[in-house]
Batch of 2 targets.
Target 1
Amino acid sequence: MAAVAAMSLAATPEQLVLPIGLPDLPMHLRLDALSSFFLFLLGASSSGISIFAAGYFRRGEGTSPGLLCLQYHLFLASMGCVLLADDAYSFMVAWEAMALSSYFLVTTQHSRAEIRSAGFLYLLMAHIGALAILLSFGVMQGGSWQFTFDAMRAVHLSPPWAATAFLLALFGFGAKAGLVPLHVWLPEAHPAAPSPVSALMSGVMLKTAVYGVLRVSFDLLGSPDWWWGVVPLTLGLFSAVYGVVFAAAQTEMKRLLAYSSIENIGIIFTGLGLAMIFQGVGMPTLAAIALLAALYHSLNHVFMKSLLFLGTGAVLHSTGERNLGRLGGLIHRMPWVAWLTLIGVLALAGLPPLNGFVSEWLLLQAFLFAHEVPRTFVNMLLPLGAAVVALAAALAAYVMVKFFGVIFLGRPREPSLAGAHDAGMLERIGLVWLAAGCVVLGLLPTQVIHVLRVVVAQLLRAPLAPESGPWWLLAPLPQRHVSYSAAIFLAAIAAVVLITVGTVRLLYHRRERRAPFWDCGFGPLTPRTQDTAEGFGQPIRHIFGVFFAMTRELPSAFDPAPRYRVMVGDRIWQGIYLPMGMLVQRVADALAWLQQGRIATYLLYSFITLLLMLALVL
Amino acid sequence: MKALELLTQAIAVIVAVAAAPLFLGWVNQCRAWLQNRSAPSIWLPFRNIRKLFYKDAVIADGASPLFRAAPYLVFGAMVTAAAIIPSMGSALPLTTAADAIALVGLFATARVFLALAAMDIGTGFGSLGARREMMIGFLAEPALLMIIFVASMISSTTALQAITLNLVTQHLALYPSLAFTAIAFTMVLLAENARIPIDNPTTHLELTMIHEAMLLEYSARHLALMEWAAALKLFNYACVGFALFVPWGIAAGAGGATALLVSIPVLGAKLAAAGAVLAFIETVSAKLRLFRAPEFLATAFLFAVLGLLVHLLLGA
């Protein structure tokens, strides 16, 4: 599937009209560069995830494997259809199929109450988002009542209507992508699903929302105004910091990764917003760089996040434990999973020479020239966005050290961990595939960008300046003398490390002995003296206290059994969603007296309705 | 010309590796003089490293291969960083492969491996040090990036050697924006290199230590490499500071071999001055409580933003 998409990337857009669906309403399918890119992303990652899942689901989790398999493939197919759809009807059908099939996958372990409520919240948010997307399509058809995307491209909307359509689409797709403040379902639903499904949802499904925003803003609506970009840029920057700060405070490994997905979606939307601003003020070269950064990061995030979710899945199966505070020392028991996860961890932390760094580098380059935007104030505030991206990236490194250090390093915190076993062969193949993706995307940025340029050219509707420079050197702005070469970078580090190792081995003896670690003379220290996940997140809670709704219970000095408790909550949940839920509840209660439960009353309602209709018609 | 470039590259790396412990020794010596102590020899860090290399390595039970690999990786990252920074000549072949942002990424890589290795043994101290180090890291990185941004905007490139070349070749001009960022950079340098207002390089008191806490389980050649890498980091930061703020004396582009020869004593003079200033700052300031560190680094960030605004408003 990935191969098919890769081949069609350079080909001309193909259109296909399928004579299925409702009468007079055929499904239009179309494969152009944009959908090919996202199809490639879907295919490349899902091949790794599926191999892993083949090993994983055998050991059972909730729903019977047969049904699970059907749901899984339905989910994959519907995501493919979303990317291929060329009219609003088939898009919405595929979009809903995607939401529903993933809902059933999320509630695989439906015997547990919290998983059922997570699934319900997910379904609710998915439908609110879908409504907004539907309204957006309604605006975009612009009175022509033609719902094919071709017709929408041809319609010219007045600026206020175009902006309405864009904002509605951003709301709808943002709800699917998990942009703050529409993110609340994401940290509930992703951990609830089985790990391969979490990987698909976090890795690929969020990207269909990115695809949707790209399709609507650049393709269907045509030329975005510059101020449109400010909205996704602001939301993206906020999501990036918000997500990563919350990730640092989490104690459950899959929730931590879910919050980290919010951060990465934030970075992608930041790139999108920046591209719109540049495009709107007529700076296509920089718009291309920002868009490249966003697309590149989408691709990277698929590989690294899927890798980490699958890694946690392997840990979960092997130990039955998802709380970070009860893990530790697994690098000795599960070396394959640990070392492969380490690659994902380094990539997600944005460290060179892996792939996460390349997209962040491109984004920072785009930010660097943002002060040339010919709008006062905007050009001064934009460079500060780079600092926010840097903060998010540095915090991501913090989160990843916590994630890897607490799970895989140190000493086992529970005696039961001694029985942990490494992943099976199929699972290893899946992990290796994704880890290899991270490394290749990191080392060959020029080749990847060469492919991405087709997509960017389609979106910006302008041919890009021809590439220059040798194959190993990434130099997106030749006139600025900026370049980065991951291959040489890695070679230099590897050479220095090897020379150092060689020199040390050659010149000095290699005597060494093993001893217990230094306990300061106190005698044996239990594994409890290591940092727990809460402990490691403590500086973040201290510094970013404003983000959290924290309740602390401190013991008094005279407590016979002292207990220290901290509850960390989400201010947005408590500030927006709970009041809104209460409001809905109150309105529903007020309307409840209509429902008397007697046939006579309902007949009366029908009669009154009929009378009203008649009065209207006559 | 190509041969000269390669020669410059080789000399830059060798000088950095050799001079880094000396620079650390010089800072310690200055500090001792300022504090009315009898000063240790400037060669002391070298002797220390040599002594450590002769010792038997003691490795804690339960150390994973990551623990043994980390010193080599951290040292390798720092040497690579030294090869990227234009400390003496700006015509370095390796600088096309990495710009200032990649340099920040390289420092971050070293930090992550250091923190992971510290967590590997599973002691309270190790994870405490790792947590604190990563905290300082995420506070310092945005500030460092803003500093680099200001310098990059003046030269409209993030390539370090191009920034240096640009500042050297134009006629002497004073940039107020660079003055603000220089203050910010000094503060970041102190924080990132475990110097006094943030961390104390000579203490082993658990309430205060950050960097030393991570090295507690290391011994012999691993410890030697780690300490050498720390010295190199300080040297590298100083050289980044020279490249951005006092680039004069660096052999520019077509300077040839004589310019290269001249640039070595110039670098020595700059390092001596910087070391004295560093020792002075460390002597007159007191160690901050750990949770004052965010305020310290936020101040550094604000100075960098001030530099940015000055540059954008005044164009200077």
Target 2
Amino acid sequence: MEHPFAITLDVGSSLANQTGSWRTSRPVYVDRLPPCNNACPAGENIQSWLYHAESGDYETAWRTLTADNPLPAVMGRVCYHPCETACNRAQIDEAVGINSVERFLGDTAIRHGWRFAPPAAESGKRVLVVGAGPSGLSAAYHLRRMGHAVEIHEAGPFAGGMMRFGIPKYRLPREVLDAEVQRILDLGVVLKLNAKVDRIVERMQAGRFDAAFLAVGAHIGKRAYIPAGSAAKVLDAVALLRSMEGEEKPLLGRRVVVYGGGNTAIDAARTAKRLGATEAIIVYRRTRDRMPAHDFEVEEALAEGIMMKWLSTIKRVDEGALTVEKMQLDDKGFPQPTGEFETLAADSLVLALGQDVDLSLLDGVPGLAIKDGTVQVGPNMMTGYTGIFAGGDMVPSERTVTVAVGHGKKAARHIDAWLRGAVYAPAEKHELASIDKLNAWYYADAPKTVRPMLEVARRQSTFEEVQGGLDETNALYEARRCLSCGNCFECDNCYGICPDNAVIKLGPGKRFAFNYDYCKGCGLCAQECPCGAIAMVAEEI
Amino acid sequence: MLKQIEGSRAMAEAIGLCRPEVICAYPITPQTHIVEGLGEMVRTGDIKNCEFINVESEFAALSVSIGASAAGARAYTATASQGLLFMAEAVYNASGLGLPIVMTLGNRAIGAPINIWNDHSDAMALCDAGWMQLFAETNQEAADLHIQAFRLAEELSMPVMVCVDGFILTHAVERIDIPTQADVDAYLPPYEPVQVLDPKDPISIGAMVGPDAFTEVRYLQHYKQTLALRLIPEYAAEFKARFGRDSGGLLRSYRVEDAELIVVAMGSVNGTIKDTIDEMRADGLPVGLVTLVAFRPFPTEALRAQLVRARDVVVIEKSLAVGMGGPLANNVDLALRNVAGAPHVHSVIAGLGGRPITCASLHRVLRRALVQPWEGAHFLDLNEEIVAKELHHVRKVRRSGPTAENLLRRLGQAAEQSAVLGASR
Amino acid sequence: MNEPARTLDPTQKLHFYQKGTFTVGNRLVSEQERAVQASIDRSNALTCGHRACQGCGEALGARYAIDAAMRETNGQLIAVNATGCLEVFTTPYPETSWQTPWLHSLFGNAAAVAAGVAAAMRVKGRRDVRVIAQGGDGGTTDIGFGCLSGMFERNDDVLYICYDNEAYMNTGVQRSSATPPAARTATTPAMGPEPGNVFGTGKSVPKIAVAHGIPYVATATVADLHDLERKVVKAMRIHGARYIHIHVPCPLGWGSASNDTIRLARLAVECGLFPVFEAEHGLVTGSRKIRRQVPVDDYLKPQKRFAHLFGSEQGNKRLAMVQAIADRNIVEYRLLDHDGDV
């Protein structure tokens, strides 16, 4: 049909008008760094595995997670989840229960018997890992996946390090730990138990190792000089917790005092309760807000009936009683003795004053820098001795399992590069997806699932898990609360709100592209992207 | 079939035979009986497959027709005077979009002052809007022109106004021959649009056209009307062949062969003029008449061919372009422009606001034209006395009051006076 | 263990707390629960290359409404457009960005022309083809009011959609009867003893539509796409006269940033100045509740057309008057009355 001239127009004729020429700035899709990823000491790609978890694809989620951290079931029980502290969702309602979902994924993997994929090829290099704690296990895992032959030499009778000998069973059941350790070993990592290393260089030469990663941890309890009577019962927390693995349980008596303010002190006190103490008291020289222990651990301890005595130091220990001096904070916040004393009845005193590293394996090794009882390492995790790397509690660090795991991964990458004669340069970090980059309107308000807590009474006489994890419906629920900060989750908002139809939908899993021929640069897409995955960049005119 | 019916009714029946699909009705004197008739016919089923829509204004009436026509339906409406002006925007819109709407214009004067009687000011007001305009002389022609109008409109994709003198034609009862459905169907095929709104083949109709193409659009409209100059006589000839009578065409001539004076006029007044001419011819006066049926397109050449033989042309029209003179006379001048030895054109303004045009008055003015033609517009039967009094009054008093009311009052006084005088005689 | 990892039906009902509840689409829910705009098959009735300003709310509103109607009618749709921004920026010769059959006649007659198209479709026996008339606030509340009322009164089978950006934007931001009190326009400048549009003027065409008793009336906003689409779909399932009034911010005329269009539309709802409600046959049947109420200031501040209200005593008084209007809407349409509605 011939159309009348000019009055009548054919469909599609506007495509000749390429309005992209109007722009002064253009939208670009960016992947910004989610705060959780940023905060995770193990460098997990949390947002990514939550993305898979939320569609029910748990195995992909688990594989994404374990690409960085091989111990999710453990993490889900012991990690202090700095990711949740950083989580943007906390500013809308409550942080996503990342830790709970991680535990769920770890448990699901164990239940289904998912295994790690073996390395693609062997590199021909051999690496010695000293210490089968979280740092060593992590390094061994990553190195093995990169194709290196790995041997772990562990001084103790079991693998696990602090996970086995420091963290109580009620927090981390041993079957879980065993399963995740075994899965790493199944990759072909050789584990030698009861194989303490006395001299590291010799051990390396004996085993023809091309490099070594030291992760012996800090297992020596610090001691303080406290005058003690001959029958006074004083032990250190590390030893106490360690001894819980054995057959003989220590006898602490009815009234136990724990001296110290860290998580170890809390663990010791809670363990004492479970061993039958009627009273477990934590004595700490400063106030609750100054305690290094995590607050929720303090909460749990208080809920179990553990008492706290603030602003107190222990001056003297005798059989059946302690002398305690009251402290007060000066104007600078430091505790100062008041000269007031009191007596506290106690059958035993447990010292939880920190831990030291057994550095004997490094005796005589040249080039090392030791400071404050820890080994100094460079940004590549290498010590002063070429080819010997170190991580975990034995190097300066925040002493948590997750940090240790992170060290293991980082060291493995550097070792791998070094073995190839290259240098590992980590990719530059993307811009942080802070809350101001998000459009929170698109997320509804919801409370975090409160994990079911065992009856307090039950907790004190058995070692069942204190926190039952999320079941499947809850894990999905939690995962779906993730805002996907800085990373497109294909919500179709940009595709839908572009007034110029200038966003191209590429298909499920393929995200979107901008049609710059027509995009006028109005910025609506960037503004209405819920997760901040679009940035406006000035055009060069 | 012969029927003794009112002109409006005859038109309604003729329109009905054209199988309209959408009819929009907004009442205004003197077209009301047409749309009422159509409404009845739709209800009784005499017109089938037709949507009869009562709208809320003339603007809506033509707008609904525009929508219907653009969507491929044969659309019809009717109006007059004020109503035509109320829909003025839509009138230009319909022709600009090239929609073959047929509209009856029951010619009526335009206010102020408000006046419901017949003159051609409404048709003249929008004669340049791009519609074709055909003027009926008789009720028969009024009916017949509608049938030709649909054919013409749809062939050219251009709307047509069929102008019929209000009251004189619309309300007069005469003997009319109403054609058969079969004959009309044979003459007027179903509407096949040049452009149509159809989900199967989407297009955008009604674009904004800028300086780069607007002239061309207008030129093409103008060109289409020149094509009508050929089609109008063709369709009239076809009509005669099928229906057996002369109706339509561009123009008709009456006793022009040896005329020294030719009258030009449109509409029903031609009947009276013919009677006057017959009487003058009987007195040996060489006068003739050209009846213009098509005013738009203006049949310049055909009219010129008729008029060149005369010495003088008198244009008698029921319209006034205030400040200029007679618009029809002006158009006739166009036909004679640049013609060597062209006759002189003299303008008569008559019948405004429905004032009857009598044979006596026509005799007076035509005989005068033969001997003493005038310059400028001559207002037939102007009441000079009242006009003079009003002019005098206006010069004296600033707040002289509304003109129309003043004149009416004077007329009333004059009537009284003559009654008194009459009584005193 | 051999059983595959058990996955829940991933297409959960999205009625609580999950990300994407309010977004256009969501890979985690069924296609039916996603907006029409999420679909790669959406008709794009208004496609690229049109000349709307950056961030134009009307371009969005029009595509939203017509795409939803196209899907509901299986593409059997004809649109009639009044003169105005939408018409001008979509069909400047030689380019049209409409992909549906489309007709533009005049400024004030869209409703009547649409009635004519609908009549033609009936006559032609094509009752499956539906008709939408659309225009801006100027073409609807003022110059088009007569034809609109006529169409309502006759109960013509036409859905009339008004895109309300609260002024005659296309001709240079002049005041219409939809311009809110105190707003600056070119014919109500921010000058003189009472700067901006005068209080006590203006009309609510949605209310007037309700008063006509037509089968369906609704207000909607470009900030709530799902609701807008639902209403268009609902309207297309009804025969007879229907009216939808969509609030569409205009960055140019309102003096707001081009990327603020949706945010402002949202704020207008959340402060109560633009009530979102539905009515059938003369009675209001329900309203969208305010989710997080804000004072009118939050909505007015980002718009330069209200700048003169801020920073003076007179301005504060007038702000209070605007707040009173919002408060009254909240009461009248029960915008905070959540009873059970999440």
